[in-house]
Amino acid sequence: xxxxxxLIVCSLxxxxxxxxxxxxxxxxxxEVPAPKEPPPVPAxxxxxxxxxxxxxxxxxxxxxxxxxxxxxxxxxxGQTQMRVQGPNFATATQLVAADPTNTVxxxxxxxSADARASITAKIDDNATVQxxxxxxxxxTVNLVRAxxxxxxxxxxxxxxxxxxxxxxIATRNQERLAATHASEPGSINMLTVELANAQTTxxxxxxxxxxYQAQLTNMVSDLETVPQEQVATQLLAxxxxxxxxxxxxxxxxxxxxxxYLPAS
Length: 264
Prior knowledge:
- By secondary structure, the protein is mainly α.
- It has a domain of about 140 residues.
- A two-stranded antiparallel ribbon has the order 1-2. It has a two-stranded antiparallel ribbon with strand order 3-4.
- A hairpin with a 2-residue loop joins strand 5 and strand 6.
- The chain is rod-shaped.
């Protein structure tokens, strides 16, 4: 009997609940709004990421991260070397200017805005050439960055991401070293052209100096290598001319008007 009573009470409760579900509830004579739907539960931290994002993180994002690190470490002309702010380095999110006392500096040479003008040479009275060069110029530093990014990689046959990482890094290196940068100041192409111009100028001036040296050498040779017979002949001729001059002078000195008067 008790079991049947419990079933009847539960059935009545269900029926009353369903009947009152469509009616608006009131409290103190006022209508009570229906409860809102609960917000969606956010994804758990341990929920797996999108496979495409995981794939990019192992390939394209590795290339991007390595290239950015190379840009920060291998600084160019006038650039300030940056380092991760810390400690704690594991959770750091900011970069600060590097301090030489606690940061390795890759380049410690000259940092002139005009690398070529940093070294000059006067090759003639009216000619000067500029032939300075710096390792942190645009073309050279980009080459160092590209080599550094490639050097730290490990393309193992057992790693399925090796091919994708290689392609991503190679693509960025091709863009960094493309011929479209050849006309930029400090590029390897411009460095070659400017040093070649200085070499050509020096070579032309050297040829002029060589020709002038040959001319002076001939003049000295004419003075120092005269044959003795020719010298003796020239001295004898000079002596003869001097004797004739002396005799004429003596005759003129003894001339007198008396010598030209008729005898009485």
